Description:
This protein folds into 2 domains: 5-300, 5 Propeller (Tachylectin-2, Chain A), CATH 2.115.10; 314-518, Jelly Rolls, CATH 2.60.120. It is built from 1 helix and 39 strands. The chain has one helix at 514-518, and strands at 5-7, 19-23, 26-30, 36-37, 39-45, 52-58, 74-83, 86-94, 107-114, 125-127, 135-138, 144-148, 152-157, 169-172, 181-188, 191-198, 206-212, 220-221, 228-229, 238-247, 253-260, 273-281, 287-289, 298-300, 314-315, 327-329, 337-338, 346-349, 364-367, 372-380, 389-397, 400-408, 412-419, 424-430, 438-445, 448-454, 461-466, 488-494, 503-513. A hairpin with a 5-residue loop joins strand 22 (273-281) and strand 23. The two termini are 19 Å apart. Residues 517-522 have low confidence and may be disordered.
Amino acid sequence: xxxxxxxxxxxxxxxxxxxxxxxxxxxxxxxxxxxxxxxxxxxxxxxxxxxxxxxxxxxxxxxxxxxxxxxxxxxxxxxxxxxxxxxxxxxxxxxxxxxxxxxxxxxxxxxxxxxxxxxxxxxxxxxxxxxxxxxxxxxxxxxxxxxxxxxxxxxxxxxxxxxxxxxxxxxxxxxxxxxxxxxxxxxxxxxxxxxxxxxxxxxxxxxxxxxxxxxxxxxxxxxxxxxxxxxxxxxxxxxxxxxxxxxxxxxxxxxxxxxxxxxxxxxxxxxxxxxxxxxxxxxxxxxxxxxxxxxxxxxxxxxxxxxxxxxxxxxxxxxxxxxxxxxxxxxxxxxxxxxxxxxxxxxxxxxxxxxxxxxxxxxxxxxxxxxxxxxxxxxxxxxxxxxxxxxxxxxxxxxxxxxxxxxxxxxxxxxxxxxxxxxxxxxxxxxxxxxxxxxxxxxxxxxxxxxxxxxxxxxxxxxxxxxxxxxxxxxxxxxxxxxxxxxxxxxxxxxxxxxxxxxxxxxxxxxxxxxxxxxxxx
Length: 522
């Protein structure tokens, strides 16, 4: 019998720090979302390979204000758990810690609960522990703990897991490698197993493990460490680490972990993604992931009925709610966008704040999921004041992006503008754009991005081509302090500071990538 196979990563694009659980025959995943809103995507799978977003842990802007959040701050490393019929999400809220408005706290932990995995989740409860990467552990006697870095520290919790009930104590500090984080604790066959991600979240990332007969140790490091690490710097999957184990219905164990796909060099433009590999248990009670060979590119699928979800790649904006694939950059201004003001369109009113400013509002993006793709939209926008602009953007952060914008600068123009490192540059311009709707398109071929425009969606003219877009990657700007998110693509409008409030109407947004074109159903 020929068994099915799958390709890693299984959650493609910006889906870092996976936390996966099984509830009956269903699997659920939470991932980091950083400054994006709604926060903490929750995804669902039936076969462990094919995933689709079913909700977010934080959807109410009054629950979490990310409007002043710096790039790659915000929500870090959520953990999803299921205890006594209730779903829990623990996550780190990474604050700016810049002293503004009395903000000197760097990190606090958030806890949310729900009766269903997709939510709605309760308003977050804050646990004042200043570290990162919390996970939820319930011992066999019912005692509850938050396991948190550095290394693996256990913080006793109340019976409902919503309050601190004791001081943090180190369970296992890790092996001594740098950046011991992403801890998880689980029980099996009388042992406590600790997993810690070490080596930093870039190249050389990995997972180490240890075990003990008692919660607080002493722990013995696994002789198979690192249980996951990419040792081959030329392999197509790198940066493998920060993982969690889950057991399927057949009793087989698996590890979900983050990884990155280099784009023509050590540039992970899509950021950190989620991969899956089998776990093997040795006769003396240790485990390895993929036999210690590092991440697999192609792997034999779990022995579960295949369940493929249709990918949401096109949005006609015909519904009263946005598709779950969309993310706003930071907390949106809900009074400045609408799906009902002009039915069948996503309307954004221009307001202050440009793409290179944190105060920019209502930039709407979806994840890039392959190294080659095309995306297009139809825009109706009639600027008549300098600074007014709306269009298509490939966006990494306020420091780095490319935008193809319909604007007014002494006339109606199309501008292709790049921001390589905290400074905009005009790359190309088309003058005398007609007073009519304009179609915009980007075609991405690895590190090359070509932008087009059309008046009918059929005959396209090139606006400009950008070569070697390494700045749209995690590693692309070495002096940028935090780059954890990956590049996304979408639409935006703002007024460039001129103070106007003018509607920009997007009729649709289409995304099509090489996975869909070349390998349907994989």
